[in-house]
Amino acid sequence: MVASEIRALFAVASRPEVVSLAGGMPYVTALPLDVVGELVADLINRRGSEALQYGSGQGDPALREQICEVMRMEGIDAGADDVVVTVGSQQALDLITRIFVDPGDIVLAEGPSYVGALGTFAAYQAKVVHIAMDDQGLIPESLAQTIYALHASGQRIKFLYTIPTFQNPAGVTLNLVRRRQVLEICQKAGILVVEDNPYGMLGFDGEPLRALRADDPDGVVYLGSFSKTLAPGFRVGWALAPHAIRQKLVLAMESAVLSHSTFTQLAVGQYLATQPWREQIKTFRELYRERRDALLGALEMQMPDGCTWTKPAGGFFVWMTLPEGLNSKAMLPQAVDKRVAFVPGTGFYADGSGARHMRLSYCYPQPDRIREGVRRLAGVIEEELRTVEMFGTRSRDGHSGVDTPGPDLA
Amino acid sequence: MSDLGHVLVLAGGLSYEREVSIRSGRRVAEVLRSQGVDVETRDTDSTLVPTVLSERPTVVFVTLHGGAGEDGAIRSVLELLGVPYVGAAPDACRVAFDKPTAKAVVRSWGLNTPDSVALPKETFHDLGASAVLARIVESLGLPLFVKPSRGGSALGASIVRSAEELPAAMVGCFAYGDTALIETYIEGVEVAVSVVDLGDGPVALPPVEIVPDGGAYDYAARYTAGRTEFFAPARLADEAMAACEAMAVAAHSALGLRDVSRTDLIVDGAGKPWFLEVNVAPGMTETSLLPMAAEAAGRDLGALCRGLLEIAARRG
Predict the structure, then answer these.
(1) Hey, which residues does A238 pair with through a beta bridge?
(2) φ and ψ at A218, to 5 degrees?
(3) What ipTM does the predicted assembly reach?
(4) How far is B145 from chain A (nearest CA, A)?
(5) Smallest Cβ distance to A3: which of B155, B156, B220?
């Protein structure tokens, strides 16, 4: 790993003076923390000897049943036997990659894609090939062409990694027609789909969307998480996998950590069993909807001509495209100096593209802070436009290292 | 050894070098604790002034890099609070931190420093960038080194080997500051010389030679362990070593610095050192140059830091 000046700038972004539109931390303060506290105390009092003991590698059986109930809201009909509880869905992704990928293998992913996944793929020396997206999500034609070209050149594609709903970082959602097309293309080409769905329950309009897994139980590994619907501190996520893959996942899980924390699994189980968790998700949805509206409204009012952005119907993120000639990474020092932070687009690509983009998150700051942040950011972009116009070029992009913040940045 | 009482290490701040500063502060606190000093590390935020007023630390060690830590601002506040601190006074900091001004001062004292021009962004805007840049290349020649007039850790700095590269280097530089220093780039050996004054006048520690593996001693090369090879002492002829040490001590004196400083310079093919810049709050991290120089001199970093605190405390 290389020390990175971008990463160093995020050290400043963590200070309260800075409006951070950079991080992806859920607003856990909206939880009834006193209730959670009582629940945990009660858990230890009643079932302490079980909660503090080793558990099974696959995860607590009762929690796996509850997870199936949660997934039913997205049209998934699955048995607890095919669920593996993991340390956040991030670990599920790590295990899947470990099982499937040999160095040099291809993983297909949306361009842009989730930085944590790109990091995992890089760790196992997978080669990521990005598939183009538009405001309706992954473009099926682009997926089909890429698969064809890769197969024609004899390359081995291991799976398609996709976040179809309220994508991180793009904020877009794969429409229903394309969902069918993507599944068909992958089925035909014999390519496994890894569906990462941490934000699926956080839609702002109507019922949760039907998951890809709901229509293809044999071709899709589904990754879910309580990090956004409850709290990331529990580190409870899961994988729902076809039978053969599930067996390998359990073995990989045992070799990695023996078993997940029984304590946090039982705590999550207790929460689901005793608390109105659907109501709590509604509370989160309302809160994030208000913040999204604040961000979109402020962007509309403040951003200079030539900037465009996505309009998410759920989740945490807006993806902004800057006028031609601007480099978001080069703007971050000025932004931090003006006390606002974002994540430069380059962090969300494995191939160095994305310089004209930035990810803006609205999950953590209050609406008035979001508006203030956008005001500051607009000033920075206008000044950079002036500088680039003055010198007739953008800055050289010679920086190395990690371009995205750690998970604990607000 | 005198009892130092309660010592405050200031680290963090809101400059681009916040992360480096936090690491420097941690290291200084650690080595001071090993000397039996009662140390507390603090960030600079709205709680600082009330804390200093209520706790009344005996002396403050400033490991803030860039911005308010080195431009004299925090030190001015410490003066207002009547708390002694290690390092240069605010006025000297202001001169040293502004690279063009520091270069002018050391040049007036007869020290070599590369020819340069410092220009604010507004000048390019008002007079037209291309005309001004063309004149710079014509006058200073190539290659050039472009860096922000203030700040450190090579942020926003780059080497320009052709005229076509200059506009992009300017944009990169202005990302980190509003005034650019454009100087003739001297090919040679990069050397850093730390200077300490424990009461008997400024003394140079052994010069440290910097050999980045990728060619450029940029941010990543500075703070990634193993990315840069250091030689302490530098592999220079005795005469060049002496010239580097003399230059660092002269710069320290010329700029009116006190206690501690680090001068960065380049030794050209003829063995002649050129002054580049000076730091009034040198980095103290595991990969920083002053700790390396101290080790090469057989000096314990903890004892050195303790000595600096004692001098500052005596000064009051």
Answers:
(1) A85, A224
(2) -90, -20
(3) 0.82
(4) 14
(5) B220
